[in-house]
Amino acid sequence: MKAAILDGIVLGLQFGLLGAGLTLVYGLGGVLNLAYGQLAVLAAVVVSLTLDGARAGAAVTLGLVTAGAVSLVLDLTLMRPVYHLRGERRVLLGLLLLLGVAFIIDGLLVWRYPSQSLSLRIGGDPVPILGVNMRTGSLLASAIAIAAGGLLFVFFRFFTLGQAVRSVIQDEEGSRLCGVNPAVVRSFIFGLSGVLAGLVAVTRSMTSPVTVSAGVDLTILALIVAVVGGLGSVPGAFLAGVLLGIVNTVSAFYIGSYVTTIILLAAAALTIVIRPAGLLGHSR
Predict the structure, then answer these.
(1) Which of 13, 172, 207, 229 is most buried, by CB atoms within 10 Å?
(2) At how many degrees (to 10) do helices 215-229 and 2-29 cross?
(3) Which H or E element spans position 51?
(4) Distance between alpha carbon 213 and the CA centroid of its chain, in Å?
């Protein structure tokens, strides 16, 4: 049981990182990025292909930059007409366009690299944590996720650009009157979300392989985490990620992995009924 909980925390930190990028984009633009998981897989494929002729650090950097650059291009091109709309029309058009992007990325990767996967093997002896031997890869992945979460907290709390992001999330019109350009802020966050997606692929590959077909599953997990944590709330994403990670591993341990996704979906549905804004979210 103790081992399952610790594994759940490791998985939950990855879930939190996964939900953070998705929830930021929704908080700023009111758009759910259904290509988010595919961006993570794209980064994983780039890292995997580059590892053959480069050091791990350079390969990982290239993967993160690729995912961030593709996200930025999507914001500067495909998403521009979406931002001109309001309410349900913006949400629906964004869903349709980004779903199309997801299909395109999925199709290209499966066609070109059908058997490609990323698995970063981290050497070292297991480390005892509370009497449980934890793999070095799991601990490193957790440390990276915690560090990324801490950097996001510091950025949004103490940096001018981070405060501008928060102001746009809270009141776009008011932030514009204060001299903040919402379009620039959205572009920055869209690019940052791509980098976070790539970081998810890297950390996840330290504990289990990231395959070309993993995009849909990653997107579904990101949506569940973002909904439970509260769309637009990064702390909520990490809190929900850890809770759902523990639920995931404990249910897999006692019931079986084949029902874990159903349990996670049930948790998301229950959250919507009890607290529609999510654990730490605010009503829009």
Answers:
(1) 229
(2) 80
(3) none
(4) 16
What is the rounded CA–CA span in Å between residue 166 and residue 189?
11
Residue of 66, 29, 65, 68 whose CA lies nearest to 184: 29
- For 183-227, what is each residue's pLDDT tens digit? 899 999 999 999 999 999 999 999 999 999 999 999 999 999 998
Domain ranges within the chain, ordered by starting residue: 2-119+127-274
Q: DSSP H helical segments within 77-214, as ranges?
A: 80-83, 87-112, 136-158, 160-170, 172-177, 182-205
CATH number of the structural domain 2-119+127-274: 1.10.3470
- Residue pLDDT, tens place only, 21-67: 999 898 888 888 999 999 999 999 999 999 876 788 899 999 999 99
Distance in angstroms (rounded) separating the CA atoms of residues 142 and 136: 10
Burial 2-21 (b: 16+ CB within 10 A, else e): eebbbbbbbbbbbbbbbbbb
pTM tops 0.85, yes or no? yes
- CA–CA distance, 36 with 101 (Å, rounded to integer): 10
